[in-house]
Amino acid sequence: MAALPASVPNVAVRVMLNLGGCGSYANIVADFEPPGPAGNFELLNAVPKSRLPPEFLHALRAGLLEGLNGVSAAVLLTDGAYHETDSSDYGYRIAGQEAGRAALIGAGLLPPCEAETLRWAHWPTKPRARRRRPYQPPRH
């Protein structure tokens, strides 16, 4: 199992899906670090239960493991939020997937152009999206 080679702090993900009626809402902020001496994935939670209920941690962990795609890391949750009606396991799973992929991009394990595929993730070193110029026909 590969290890995350560099720290990626302040990865923020806010998922807001409207699925007709109730949506899927999740909001997390996490710091990604290289794994400890054992080299295993670790998830540490420093967010109070009032801001991130423990029932969503299982889905978040599953999403992080999917997003990291076999790369081990130590993940510290530093902030989070939920909505009584709209938060769901599905939203936290998506948040975990996006956060994991953002960490891989921030650590240099995925190319920067992959950042354009992340809809809800932001981090301090996120590459800016390239602005595409509208098509202009050639002048004659």
TrEMBL record:
Name a Pfam family for this protein.
EFG_IV
Question: What SMART domains does the record tag this protein with?
Answer: EFG_IV (SM00889)
User: Organism's domain of life?
Assistant: Bacteria
Sorted alphabetically, the keyword list is: GTP-binding, Nucleotide-binding
Task: Note whether Transcription regulation occurs among the keywords.
Answer: no
Name the InterPro entries for this protein: Ribosomal_Su5_D2-typ_SF, Ribsml_uS5_D2-typ_fold_subgr, Transl_elong_EFG/EF2_IV
Give this protein's Gene Ontology molecular function annotations: GTP binding
Chain ranges of the Translation elongation factor EFG/EF2 domain: 7-108
What is this protein's name?
A: Translation elongation factor EFG/EF2 domain-containing protein
Taxonomic source organism: Streptomyces tubercidicus
